[in-house]
Amino acid sequence: MKKISILLLALGLTLSSCDNALDIKSEIALDANSPLSSDDVDKLLIGSYSVVMNPNTYGYFAIMASEIMARDNYDPVKFQFFQIQYLYDHATPPGDVMLSYFYKDFYKAISRANTILKVPTASNAQKGKARYVRALTYLRLYDLYEGVPLVDENYDFNPIKASSPKEVLNFIINDLKYAKDNVESASATDIKTRLKPTKEAAMALLARVYRMNGDIASAGAEAEALIKSGKFSISANPKNNDSEVIYKLAGNLAEGNGVWGWIMSYDANTWNCFAASKNLVALLGPTDTRKSLFDIAEAPSTGNFIFSNKYTRAEDSDLLISRIPEMYLISAEAGNTNRLTEFQAARKSSLSLDDERRVELSFEWVRWSDLKLKGEKYKLPFPQGAVDANEFLTN
């Protein structure tokens, strides 16, 4: 675990995130403009997945940022980094060094996706996976900044203005529609196919983004198609969610690329540490199967904090992107009320639809977007270095 204070790092770092407009030139050694083998393109794809999973040295905070900003699911145990408290307090200044990491390093994943899209020998399926990566990454940027510069494979590295939030969502939707039409389907039995973008992964993210974009009918249609595919099912034991997963990125202990599980445990209580909020845990009824995802019995020995154990406490937590329970809840919101009944029977719960979403999708990086749909207005400022370098970017 790298726990060097960001305060100390800030003293030795300049905000080089955008010294030249968007500093997102590809770090890939392969030449995208030359004919590459299918294996070479797959290597480029693996590089793009790795940046989505772990954008930088503190990439876990890039993943966790939106949940931290949502606040109501987390009970902070300790803020060692004042930058993390800024996120929680909705007080991040433009000069914050971590803010610059979020901005430039998510664009690194977009750059890698764009590199693949320029490869003349890339197949449509490979391009579809690259566009899924680009869509997912823009969704992360949307969560944090809302309207951001939209950079596609034709970007010429000149200053570019930020697009509107609606334009960003529509860009994401178009990428996901391409991925849906061109990427291979997931296997109903081989869960390894759920570790890379599939047709179903694109459909699931489409359902989420359609909902965010105010098109609940289209969201419901995608969700229903996934439910009816029969490839995924709600598990009787939420701790064993293999049957539920539509898409996730696998953590790797050697790379230490999934640290959020550790930060959401008492093991991190002397560092930056987050427990589950008391009002979140209070939503769990006496028979709710999701109680197994919270260390309720251990609270007397952990300062009366209750921690989520949805992720492992090693540094190899998987990154959950989409699960079938979310599709049941989206379908129910679209008017298929029987899906809520089926979902609640599986979870042994009787909450409102909003509260079911809050509990079921807690710590899966969607709570912030739900709160914004309810009227939350806060967004992060652009990093000062980006504003200084790009004449079209303002806060």
Automatic annotation (TrEMBL):
It holds the Pfam family SusD-like_3. Residues 1-21 form the signal peptide. PROSITE patterns: PROKAR_LIPOPROTEIN. Residues 22-210 form the SusD-like N-terminal domain. The keyword Metal-binding does not apply. Keywords: Signal. Transmembrane segments: none annotated. This is SusD-like N-terminal domain-containing protein. It comes from Chryseobacterium pennae.
